[in-house]
């Protein structure tokens, strides 16, 4: 499943449609409750599949369930913290030499810096009430994956 460019392309196409649906949905705004949080968590679990964006799936699910944009964005990234930390701990558990630790540290700092830049950009786009740039990006990559995969 993780070696299939066609599957990743199809799921990127699905992600694009999901993002567009959140832009078009006119839902009554509600507050975050345990049932809503559980459904957003399921969306995060689906993001293990290639082509499903974790942040796109969680923010979009939050929006479709009626959360305000800022609340959906904040919850999505709070929900990601255990995932990110678990991934880092898993990488650390693998161990390695001093050179690999230096590379891991440099990689972590670089990922952190670009992660914060991406996060700031994504937050601005989400709060502007338009996910279409990300949708277009996923749509084009999805089509490319389906054609050339």
Structural description of this entry:
The chain has 149 residues and is mainly alpha-helical. The protein has one domain. Helix content is 78%, strand content 0%. It has helices spanning 5-24, 34-46, 54-64, 69-93, 98-127, 132-148. The two termini are 13 Å apart. The relative contact order is 0.20. The mean pLDDT is 84.
What key phrases describe this protein's structure?
149 residues, mainly alpha
Beta-strand residue percentage: under 5%
The gyration radius over C-alpha positions equals 17 Å
Number of helices: 6
| SSE order, one letter for each helix or strand | HHHHHH
Question: Which structural class do you get from the secondary structure elements?
Answer: mainly alpha
Let me know the number of strands.
0
Mean pLDDT: 84
Shape: globular
Tell me the major beta sheet.
none
What level of helicity do the residues show?
A: over 70%
Number of domains: 1
The N- and C-terminal alpha carbons lie at a distance of 13 Å
Poorly predicted ranges (pLDDT <50, ≥5 residues)? none
Question: Can you give me a brief rundown of this structure?
Answer:
The chain is mainly alpha-helical. It has one domain (5-148).
